[in-house]
Design goal:
This protein is mainly alpha-helical and 107 residues long. The protein is 40% helix and 7% strand. The protein contains three helices and two strands, in the order αββαα. Strands 1-2 form a two-stranded antiparallel sheet. It starts with 10 loop residues before the first helix and ends with a helix. The mean pLDDT is 87.
Length: 107
């Protein structure tokens, strides 16, 4: 499926998001939102999230930057795994090899 094109909220939509959250940052810190609020997709577009207003949340700028940094690391890791052809099989430990031999590999 093709990723939706990013869109931005209108002033009226931004107010609706803030009201839905009772003017509290959506990261879980329970801090009130002040000026300079960032509006972010709860489910990122690159992971199939939508541009529906229900998928937006208001965050303090610092909390949004921290979330975006975490997501960038995850995106980079997923890209590396895909470039390598998927997840690699873990090498069996000596204990696993013994158990396979003892139980015939049917654990």
């Amino acid at each position: 499926p093709e990723m939706e094109k990013r869109r931005y909220l209108s002033p009226k939509e931004k107010l609706a998001v803030r009201m839905r959250q009772e003017n509290i940052c959506a990261c879980g810190c329970n801090e009130p939102l002040e000026s300079g609020v960032h509006y972010d997709h709860d489910d990122p577009l690159h992971l199939g999230g939508s541009n529906n207003i229900e998928n937006f949340r208001a965050l303090k700028p610092r909390h949004h930057m921290e979330k975006s940094a975490r997501e960038a690391k995850i995106r980079a890791k997923v890209a590396r795994i895909q470039e390598q052809g998927g997840l690699l099989k873990k090498k069996k430990s000596r204990a696993d090899k013994f158990a396979d031999k003892f139980f015939g590999g049917n654990r």
